[in-house]
């Protein structure tokens, strides 16, 4: 069925393709499955401009996607800033470009080629940051606004994706950043995980991926509990009742405090566990402390038996 302008009205699904083995295997899988699923298959590659000739490589990836039958197949160039370090800045620029492309093209979903190995690395990075169970839950199979991002390969290992490309004679590009020891994830991939497998035996990646799913289930349950608890400790003026907060289990109370801080304007990505611990001490270790300053110019004060969180 087609629209009056000749375009199919089937929903569009895009694959984010870097040209690497994981995303090329996913692009091929999407092209194969799209007719059976009744969707249109397209692809986007993001040119980060971080290496000489990156524009040419992006054009080659677009050509490969078109050869697979993906339409539209486009390249989007981005400017990578410096905030949060090179890896975080590149990720932020990439997701912003993918969001914009999905909106412009009217895509129902964007598929990402993250594998079980990527999930294991993400869990270890979260563990190293010491930022709580949510950071151990890794990447979700479905995320983003309206569930835009989908990760169908999270249960698949990286080697299987590479073998799929070899069997189909699909050319792949290995990003030199993936072996550059100046990048944290690269060191973890080529030094950290192999050392863990040598010390603990095979199966570390699978165990970490299972940890991610179990942690996600627990975190989701605690988040739901915190959402219900917050309604019970809010007073008529929007403050939080300290006695009610003190009665909550620490894991729930800290989630309530985090949610309230974000609602007041604190950027979620800049709000760390140490910030919430400081606020928590206004509840559990009250000795007349002064105000707590949080990112986003959010200020937390204890006034009598109330906690007031607002920008100020």
From TrEMBL:
SUPFAM superfamilies assigned to the protein according to its UniProt record, in alphabetical order: Adenine nucleotide alpha hydrolases-like (SSF52402), MesJ substrate recognition domain-like (SSF82829)
Catalytic activity: cytidine(34) in tRNA(Ile2) + L-lysine + ATP = lysidine(34) in tRNA(Ile2) + AMP + diphosphate + H(+)
UniProt superkingdom: Bacteria
InterPro entries: Rossmann-like_a/b/a_fold (IPR014729), TilS/TtcA_N (IPR011063), tRNA_Ile_lys_synt (IPR012094), tRNA_Ile_lys_synt_N (IPR012795), tRNA_Ile_lys_synt_subst-bd (IPR015262)
Catalytic EC class: ligase
Key words, A-Z: ATP-binding, Cytoplasm, Ligase, Nucleotide-binding, tRNA processing
Compartmental location: Cytoplasm
Pfam family, one: ATP_bind_3
Residue ranges of every copy of the tRNA(Ile)-lysidine/2-thiocytidine synthase N-terminal domain listed in the record: 13-191
Residues annotated as binding ATP: 18-23
Ranges of residues in domain tRNA(Ile)-lysidine synthase substrate-binding: 240-307
This enzyme's EC code(s): 6.3.4.19
The keyword Mitochondrion appears for this protein: no
Gene3D superfamilies registered for this protein in UniProt: 1.20.59.20, HUPs (3.40.50.620)
Family: Belongs to the tRNA(Ile)-lysidine synthase family.
UniProt function note: Ligates lysine onto the cytidine present at position 34 of the AUA codon-specific tRNA(Ile) that contains the anticodon CAU, in an ATP-dependent manner. Cytidine is converted to lysidine, thus changing the amino acid specificity of the tRNA from methionine to isoleucine.
Domain description: The N-terminal region contains the highly conserved SGGXDS motif, predicted to be a P-loop motif involved in ATP binding.
Protein name: tRNA(Ile)-lysidine synthase
Protein species of origin: Streptomyces thermospinosisporus
């Amino acid at each position: 069925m087609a629209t009056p302008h000749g375009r199919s009205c089937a929903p569009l699904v895009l694959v984010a393709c870097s040209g690497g083995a994981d995303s090329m295997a996913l692009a091929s899988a999407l092209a194969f499955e799209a007719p059976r699923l009744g969707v249109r298959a397209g692809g986007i590659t993001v040119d980060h401009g971080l290496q000489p000739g990156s524009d040419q490589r992006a054009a080659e990836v677009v050509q490969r996607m078109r050869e697979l039958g993906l339409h539209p197949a486009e390249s989007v160039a981005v400017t990578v800033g410096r905030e949060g370090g090179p890896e975080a800045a590149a990720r932020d620029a990439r997701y912003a470009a993918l969001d914009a492309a999905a909106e412009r093209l009217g895509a129902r979903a964007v598929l990402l080629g993250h594998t079980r190995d990527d999930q294991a690395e993400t869990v270890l990075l979260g563990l190293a940051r010491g930022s709580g169970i949510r950071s151990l839950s890794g990447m979700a199979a479905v995320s983003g606004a309206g569930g835009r991002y989908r990760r169908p390969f999270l249960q698949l290992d990286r080697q299987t994706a590479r073998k799929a490309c070899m069997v189909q004679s699909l050319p792949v590009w290995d990003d030199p950043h993936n072996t550059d020891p100046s990048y944290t994830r690269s060191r973890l991939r080529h030094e950290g995980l192999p050392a863990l497998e040598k010390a603990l035996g095979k199966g570390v990646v699978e165990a970490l991926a299972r940890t991610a799913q179990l942690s996600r289930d627990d975190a989701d349950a605690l988040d739901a509990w915190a959402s219900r608890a917050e309604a019970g400790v809010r007073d008529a003026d929007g403050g939080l009742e300290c006695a009610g907060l003190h009665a909550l289990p620490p894991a729930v109370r800290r989630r309530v405090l985090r949610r309230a801080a974000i609602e007041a304007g604190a950027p979620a990505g800049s709000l760390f566990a140490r910030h919430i611990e400081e606020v928590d001490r206004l509840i559990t270790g009250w000795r007349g402390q002064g105000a707590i300053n949080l990112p986003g110019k959010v200020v937390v004060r204890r006034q009598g038996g109330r906690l007031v969180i607002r920008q100020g």
